[in-house]
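User: structure tokens for this one?
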Amino acid sequence: MTPNQETQLMDACRILFPTAEVTRDFLCYIQPEGLKNAYRNRARECHPDACGGVGDPFRRTELFRRSVEAYKLLSDYLKTRKPAVIHLRRGHGTKPVLSQAPVAERAEGEQYYEGELPAIELKLGLYLYYRGVVSYQAVVRALMWQRDLRPPLGDYACRWGWLREEDVAAILRATHIVGSFGERAVALGLLSPSQLNIILLHQRSMQQPLGRYFVVNSLVSEPALRHHLRELTRHNRQVRESRP
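Assistant:
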């Protein structure tokens, strides 16, 4: 990491953790869940429709934009940061003790994968599928569950003053434009690509973690999910390091 990169990361921490003493150690120990919680709290404080219109809306909008950029920068950093050494509790033997509930019984009539793990970067849903833990249909249901709980993109854009209700209606009517709601909005000139990226990042940060679906529906236990998340991180790191 260059000194300039370290300065940028520490400045980003100061935006999202305004009361913390930001040091190099802070960068070493910050965790993804803590980062996400800090971003959510900061976003609630400064997004453009906060405080019922009280205060300077332009200052809040600028702070919100900087918070989004800080979250993106730190998220990318955590994906490439070397993991800390974790000392597992050991039993009487020589192997670490790992509490992991057995995998739930397979559902009849659903597609389960049997084979080698593909040498590509994966997200959690597909990783669990390729590990034979959940069915392909369960992954699809989890993605639909996550999408249904996610606040609509148009709601954010209207609350922040980037779209009007009539704009939303026009975007929904523009079925001749191929793409998502956001892509249609950009094609119609109603949102800029930068505005769309900010909304999408904020929208993703507010959604429920995909793993929660599998735990709530008893497809995997909480300890097993944590184990798979660690293995997924290791797998993706190995894939990245193997690239020429």
